[in-house]
Amino acid sequence: MVDKLIPYEHPILGILPMRDGEGIRVRHVFPSSAAAQAGIKQGDTITEIDDVAVASAEQLRTVVANIEPKAKVMLKIQRNGAAQMLELTPGKLAMAIPSELPSPIAEPPAPPAEKPATGIVEIKLTEEKNECLAYVPENYHPQVPHGLVVVLSGPGPVDREKLESRWKAVAAERQLIVLAPMSANADKWQATETDFIRKTLDVAVKNYNIDLTRIAVYGYQAGGTMAYLVGFEYTDRVRAIVAIDAVPSSGSRVPDADPIRRLAYFIAQSDKAPLAQVIKSLTSAMETMKLPVTKLPLGEKPRDLNDDELKQLGRWLDTLDRI
């Protein structure tokens, strides 16, 4: 036994992989990361790590997650047809949001034989009285993996036009599908409605090409509290929690970092939010737990994200598949 357990911290090479084709082609290298310091460049293809052949981003992510802290690794890469060996020590990825990112798809796929429904789509569950909408971007293609953002608004119905206008640009640019489950009651969310939210999430995963590394739940104030509840309960599916001026419900426990089921946090807070001090204490505790937390100050008055901040969030969601 030991006096104190050291929290697990995800080892990170510091790259984003491309999302099309075979192999692990580097889409983006984060500045000052281990990958950048080792000389990895955009366009390189990673083929081996410590003499273990890796053929997919998922496989590489699993291998990296099991690297011992501060251990050096050897990467074999292909660059311009020639093999190179690079040594690096995986580190902690800075939480700064990139100002721009290259496309994750080298070439757009051919038009699909059958175009799926796009725009506002109703998600119906016959056994549930709750309603749910989804926004599918007009440029959705079934061969392109899309992230999924479960937006938990305040209690009551969701305005279709506002949902579409708010997320249209970000969803198209960042390959995102937006899911908007609604509470059964107009005055409050019930904790038991997490089951309904999970069902709508599973319907989206079944019917669309969803990138399982980029599934997030998003909420402002009461919706943010519900986002924490869903994220904490379904760590097998959710990979990010976006909470705006919100804290978890009383009695909730922040999950410890898991090597495989990675859960990232995007926490935005205004100075005069009703629970501002609690939010600060929460984020401080999360950082002590070595959890990946990105913080965004919102100024004085409590509010949801504006258009520019939503674009920042879109870029952050676009990096959830980092390795």
Give structural notes.
This protein is α/β, with parallel strands linked by helices and 323 residues long. The protein folds into 2 domains: 15-88, Pdz3 Domain; 119-317, 3-Layer(aba) Sandwich (Rossmann fold). It contains 7 helices and 14 strands. The chain has an 8-stranded mixed sheet, with helices on both faces. Strands 1, 2, 3, 4, 5 and 6 form a 6-stranded antiparallel sheet that branches. The protein is globular and about 60 Å long. The model has no long low-confidence stretch (mean pLDDT 94).
What layout of secondary structure does this protein have?
Blueprint: E1 15-17, E2 24-29, H1 34-38, E3 45-49, E4 52-53, H2 57-65, E5 73-79, E6 82-88, E7 119-122, E8 132-136, E9 146-152, H3 160-174, E10 176-181, H4 194-207, E11 210-220, H5 222-233, E12 240-244, E13 264-269, H6 276-288, E14 293-297, H7 307-317
Parallel strand pairs: 9-10, 9-11, 11-12, 12-13, 13-14
Antiparallel strand pairs: 1-2, 2-3, 3-4, 3-5, 5-6, 7-8, 8-10
Helix pairs in contact: 3-7
CATH topology group of the largest domain: Rossmann fold
Mean pLDDT equals: 94
Rg is: 20 Å
Cα-to-Cα separation, first versus last residue = 32 Å
Helix content: 10-25%
Largest sheet: 8 strands, mixed
Tally of individual domains: 2
Which superfamily, in CATH terms, is the homologous superfamily of the largest domain?
Answer: Alpha/Beta hydrolase fold, catalytic domain
**Shape category:** globular
Spatial order of strands in the largest sheet: 7-8-10-9-11-12-13-14
| CATH hierarchy class name of the largest domain | Alpha Beta
Shape-level CATH architecture of the largest domain: 3-Layer(aba) Sandwich
